[in-house]
Amino acid sequence: MSHPPSTARTALITGAANGIGFAIARVLAEQGVRVALNDVDLEAARQAAASIGPGHIAVLADVSKEEDVGAMVDETVKAFGRIDILVNNAGIGDGGVATLSQSLERFEKTLAIHVNGAFLVSKAVAPGMAELGRGSIVNLGSVAGQIGIPARTAYSVAKAGIAMMTRVLACEWARYGIRVNAVAPGYVHTRLVAGLIATGRLEEGRIRARTPLGRMAEPEEIARVVAFLASDEASYVTGAVVPVDGGYTAFGGAFDASGENSDYDRL
């Protein structure tokens, strides 16, 4: 069912049924944006959309498949009349497997969802944004795309690709009024990360020690930076990859970043 265009801004967020994607949907909804929440789990996306209030929709698509992406964008435009904001959030982990043990199949799947997905969805929404003469695309990068993290080959390559795609599209599409930016989160308290901590595959204490702010982020902290980049408050920002990592990538000392076990920051 189509609806007449409204004056409210509209957004399409991929991978939005939970985690950072859902936090972004919730924050944008609080700001009066009508949101289409995409996920490969349609029922989860429907529940997420219902939980943030009326007027939001769920859209099914595997973002690595061009046909799915086209149908998703068409459905969103039919419902909202246009897409003002795109957040390319959909992604998967690579399992944290050492490079010599990582399969080509898993490597290619990781890149397909992150890189191909961001490419396909951005390409699908750009003509509509160009016709309007405005639009904002925000991509989800990672500290893993900025620094070398062992055993994260596929994920790191994917996120580095997202960062460069952000810069290229920003330069290419600026003439159409489309801004393209990215955020690069550090470690975030999501359900996935909580599971890794619970099973001993990730040590939260080490992350805190490596992070100058001494803690992991909450999903909403990432979401609010995304919302800023998507807004008119960031009207002169394009081509930026903004670290939202508590200082993780800025720190290079050979001691705890928090200063708990060193005297470098004692006054």
TrEMBL record:
Parts of the chain that traverse the membrane: none
Keyword set includes Oxidoreductase: yes
A single MF term (Gene Ontology): oxidoreductase activity, acting on the CH-OH group of donors, NAD or NADP as acceptor
Coiled-coil segments: none
Origin: domain of life: Bacteria
Annotated keywords: Oxidoreductase
Alphabetical list of InterPro entries matching this protein: NAD(P)-bd_dom_sf (IPR036291), Sc_DH/Rdtase_CS (IPR020904), SDR_fam (IPR002347)
Entry-linked PANTHER family: 3-OXOACYL-[ACYL-CARRIER-PROTEIN] REDUCTASE, SHORT-CHAIN DEHYDROGENASES/REDUCTASES FAMILY MEMBER
Family: Belongs to the short-chain dehydrogenases/reductases (SDR) family.
Protein name: NAD(P)-dependent dehydrogenase, short-chain alcohol dehydrogenase family
Organism: Bradyrhizobium canariense
